[in-house]
Amino acid sequence: MPIYALQCSAGCGQERDIYRTIAERDRDLPSCCGTVMARKVVAPMVAPDIGPYQAVAVDVATGKAPVINSRSAHRDFLKRNGYTEVGNESVGRKAGEVRGDFNLRGDLTRATREVIGSKR
Fold first, then answer.
1. 41, 89, 99, 103 from 114: Cα distances, Å
2. Is residue 32 part of a domain?
3. Is 67 helix (H, G, I), strand (E, B) or coil?
4. 6 and 15 in contact (C-beta within 8 Å)?
5. pLDDT tens digits for 35-76?
6. 63 and 78 share a domain?
7. Considering the domain boundaries, does residue 103 fall inside one?
8. Cβ 80 vs Cβ 60: under 8 Å
9. What distance in Å separates the CA atoms of residue 73 and residue 52, rounded to the nearest whole number?
10. Residue 66 belongs to what domain range?
11. I need a surface site. Which of 56, 78, 79, 81 has the fewest CB within 10 A?
């Protein structure tokens, strides 16, 4: 659903954003200064393209690490070389996941026997 910007029709300068479907964009608009607020046309948020960067991986086509200049060049580079982007995945444990190979009881027993055995 899009966000619509509204502005006071009476001219007080108050602005407000509403979140609605396209079909409901003009339904039950809020009031300000005794009049219904008017929809205001604003520029959408556009994410800028990425800046150039030197790739860490080697391109199979050239045998060198290329300079990537855009998102589309980044996607094409990954696809052409069969690479997978890493680093954007969420961090944290999955339910029931245990990290490491733990044998706490065995480790403590072995360490205790080593200490006791070395004192005799």
1. 77, 43, 27, 16
2. yes
3. strand
4. yes
5. 999 998 888 778 888 999 999 999 998 999 999 999 999 999
6. yes
7. no
8. yes
9. 10
10. 47-83
11. 56
